Amino acid sequence: MRCGKWVVSESVTVGELLSKCGEPQSREVTKDDVFMTTVNGGRVKTGAQTVTERWIYRNSSRSLPMLVVIMDGKIVSLTRADS
Where are the beta strands (DSSP E) in the chain? Predict the structure, then answer.
């Protein structure tokens, strides 16, 4: 993803993304319970949660919006967002 003179990828940290691209135009945060499978094949909540953030960047009116997905504080994907 291009942000001005910078090119960012999944390998950058969230802090680097914010410093190079600024704040996203929108943010969505979801928290999902983490489950594990028991020996008997059942599902049990572990008590932990996964935090998933979806950030939308649109650098200009002519550029396609980009979706950044962050799971538990780590960037996992940068893709074109559905318009």
Answer: 2-3, 6-7, 26-37, 43-57, 66-71, 74-80
Provide the H-helix boundaries in 6-74: 14-21
Residue 24 structural domain: 2-80
| Whether 42 contacts 36, CB under 8 Å | no
Domains: count for the chain? 1
pTM of the model: 0.81
Q: How far, CA to CA in Å, does 48 sit from each of 29, 33, 45, 74, 82?
A: 16, 6, 8, 17, 31
Q: For 41-61, write each residue's pLDDT tens digit.
A: 999 999 899 999 999 998 777
* Backbone φ, ψ for residue 14 (5° rounding): -60, -40
